[in-house]
Amino acid sequence: xxxxxxxxxxxxxxxxxxxxxxxxxxxxxxxxxxxxxxxxxxxxxxxxxxxxxxxxxxxxxxxxxxxxxxxxxxxxxxxxxxxxxxxxxxxxxxxxxxxxxxxxxxxxxxxxxxxxxxxxxxxxxxxxxxxxxxxxxxxxxxxxxxxxxxxxxxxxxxxxxxxxxxxxxxxxxxxxxxxxxxxxxxxxxxxxxxxxxxxxxxxxxxxxxxxxxxxxxxxxxxxxxxxxxxxxxxxxxxxxxxxxxxxxxxxxxxxxxxxxxxxxxxxxxxxxxxxxxxxxxxxxxxxxxxxxxxxxxxxxxxxxxxxxxxxxxxxxxxxxxxxxxxxxxxxxxxxxxxxxxxxxxxxxxxxxxxxxxxxxxxxxxxxxxxxxxxxxxxxxxxxxxxxxxx
Length: 390
Prior knowledge:
- By secondary structure, this protein is mainly α.
- It contains 18 helices and no strands.
């Protein structure tokens, strides 16, 4: 019993001696926790300050590089953009501008490496796809060029998406025309034209591209759309004249080309086309509104011109005069000559078509082997083409 009481008293004494320490433990924990929070905040703050300083330095180098790039100082721009990336690694905009500067230095392989990396991160980026298309076009990689251009056309653009898409499609069209892919260029032009408004400059640009793509009908439509709202538009007038001429619509071409030459007498091409169009209309016996006498006289003049062309051709090609084609034409022309007169044509109206068929055949077969045709011969050749299949 005595031992039990003594043990109890000892235990009580121990508890009393530890009480001051137990009382201070929560305070110490609170102090340590507060210190940890303060330390964490201090480290976080310092980290933010460090990152802000890095970003500021990167931004400063980037601004400097952008100035160099805009001024065409590509070497300095490359150095500046690389310095910017030291402070802001993997910055998308910095890498893209570095790639553009490398393109300016014609270091396409290095630029392409950066751009492919950017494309893998954002395959829908319009700027990156378009830049890759340009590089592939320079290196003659047609399939890749077309793929990247189409990616760019349907990509996302941060601002003014329609303008960027239109500009990208125009680049693609010019590329297709450059490689002589006219059918594809025509398809892209039709897609472009369907999204255009009535803005004269844009329609005129599209019309000129249709001319280059040899889609003269669509070219004429574009130019006429401009002329509906601005009938004195010089660019659209000359374009409409050239398109109508190439379509074989010579009366319409004459009207537009007359207006063009009247406004600009120094336009040599339009003046030449106008002269030819007028001559075609004057030497076409099948146009509407002609009297019988007018038609017959045109046939007589055309027949005589074809004979002169044939005689000149045989003289230039004496060494091949014995070949079958030319003598056959000459014999046929001679056998018909006495009947092709105003009186003979009045007597035999069916002779008009037979005579003109021979004229067209002579002009076709002498066109390639007998030197440059005269203006009259050129006009007769065009008259023949306009009535092919008729």
